[in-house]
Design a protein that fits this description.
Elements lengths: L6 E4 L9 H16 L3 E6 L11 H11 L9 E2 L4 H13 L3 E4 L3 H8 L20 E4 L5 E6 L3 E6 L7 E4 L7 H11 L4 E5 L5 H11 L6 E5 L1 E3 L21 H10 L13 H11 L10 E3 L4
Helix pairs in contact: 1-7, 1-8, 5-6, 7-8
The structure holds zinc ion.
The site of zinc ion (ZN) has 5 residues, from loops.
Length: 297
């Protein structure tokens, strides 16, 4: 008998230590899973070594532990999943749904007048002699889904982006492919993540259709932006959250997520704050917008 119907996850990239923006996503996905008596899995999305920072994966895991955000089961590292990704790429090539593409960015721009892929290499079903990416052919049809927070979403990928890359020229697997395969492998039923990934969800939805994988339910949270309107990241010099005294940072996240933690939780332990959060969590109170400005204390 299945004891868990809800399987959620948090999937950071080890590009830097955990900052308040990624903590917000961790808290929301954790509390939503636990308030449904579900599992909360952890996946390290380490498939892009040039963007990664040495020690960041360990630092993220240590910070989550200090914040009381305990994951279920073992951490899944994408860097150890390459054979599964390659098998899917080969399957898509063999079925004619994916093709070899030798186009450069400037060739795509010149052929289409936009960054949308114009379908130039669609007939390339044999590996060429020059460096190539592998793209998934998209059909001219509308994809639509109901997002838990951002409501009804629709997109025709052929008109917006076109055939997309599943394996890059450098030999790295594309995020879209890895995330879809791993959500399916881990049995993820609910994806709670930042709205900066809302547009990517159309590619994920499409890949799930092509690979005959189930669609999880998606909810895209508002992302915290700095005074310049940029998402917090290593590139925008977001500060790491401190290991000591997690309480104020957890309370900040809950308030940003539209919840109303009582004053009595000030000074409380991370465990006590998370326990209150799981008992009182209301997803419908999370702001239904893509961005929220960072509040300074
Ligand atoms: Zn091409």
């Amino acid at each position: 008998m299945k004891s868990h119907h809800y399987v959620g996850r948090f999937a950071p990239s080890p590009t830097g230590p955990l900052h308040i923006g990624s903590l917000l996503t961790a808290v929301a996905s954790y509390v939503d899973a636990k308030s449904h008596n579900g599992k909360w899995l952890l996946r390290m999305e380490d498939i892009d070594p040039p963007r990664e920072m040495s020690g960041a994966a360990d630092s993220i895991l240590q910070t989550l532990e200090h914040y009381g955000l305990r994951w279920d089961g073992d951490v899944l590292f994408q860097s150890r999943q390459h054979s599964r990704y390659e098998a899917a790429v080969q399957q898509l090539l063999a079925s004619g749904k994916a093709f070899y593409c030798t186009c450069s960015r400037s060739q795509i721009l010149a052929a289409s007048g936009s960054s949308s892929y114009p379908g130039t290499c669609r007939q390339r079903h044999q590996p060429p002699d020059q460096p190539f990416a592998i793209r998934l052919q998209v059909q001219d049809r509308e994809i639509h889904f109901e997002d838990g927070l951002q409501r009804y979403q629709r997109c025709n990928l052929q008109q917006q982006g076109g055939d997309f890359v599943i394996k890059r020229k450098e030999g790295l697997y594309a995020y879209h492919l890895a995330v879809v395969l791993d959500d399916a492998l881990q049995g993820v039923t609910h994806v709670v993540r930042g709205s900066d990934l809302l547009d990517a969800t159309f590619c994920h939805w499409y890949l799930q259709d092509v690979l005959e994988l189930p669609h999880p339910q998606y909810a895209h949270l508002p992302v915290i932006v700095n005074a310049e309107g940029q998402k917090l990241s290593k590139q925008t010099f977001a500060e790491p959250v401190p290991l000591a005294d997690p309480g104020p940072y957890l309370l900040y996240c809950l308030q940003a997520l539209g919840q109303s933690p009582p004053d009595s939780l000030r000074g409380a332990s991370a465990a006590a704050i998370l326990e209150w959060s799981c008992e009182h969590w209301q997803m419908q109170r999370v702001p239904h917008q893509r961005c929220i400005p960072q509040q300074t204390a």
